[in-house]
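Open question from group meeting: does this chain pack into something compact, or does most of it stay loose? Before anyone orders reagents, we agreed to write out a predicted structure and look at it together. Recording both the input and the output here so the notebook holds the full record.
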Amino acid sequence: MMVAGRPVDGDETFEVRSPYDDAVVGLASWASPELVEQAVEHAHQISSEAANLPLHVRADALLEISRRISDRADELAELITAENGKPLMWARVEVGRAVSVFRLASEETRRWSGEVMRLDTDTSAVGRLAYVRKVPKGA
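Structure tokens returned:
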């Protein structure tokens, strides 16, 4: 697993087994409470920096995730099938959806938009407009 941008091992490793034949298909580890705390603390420390990343940087990162998932689509679908018994056909659909979600998120990130609202519901605000846009917490 990754904590603060670096690979770390959890305290306890466990086997991931196939529901079909109980064969070991992988190993994973549990995050200790200390590792979880480190991850949360690191996320808090970089939250302002992350919130202020330019849109193109965010979009490019999301598109790269989409590309990497796509590059390993067959491997990921086979792993999903081995881990939980989902038919390969549906595992491929799941991986394809992940590729699409990150690609669409990348595209949406490049659309900087908001909502314009009329404020003339009260006489003191005649001729005034409000522009509302969502920004990441900490920005």
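Observations to bring back to the group:
The chain has two domains: 1-51, 53-139.
Strands lie at 2-3, 6-7, 12-17, 24-30, 115-118, 129-132.
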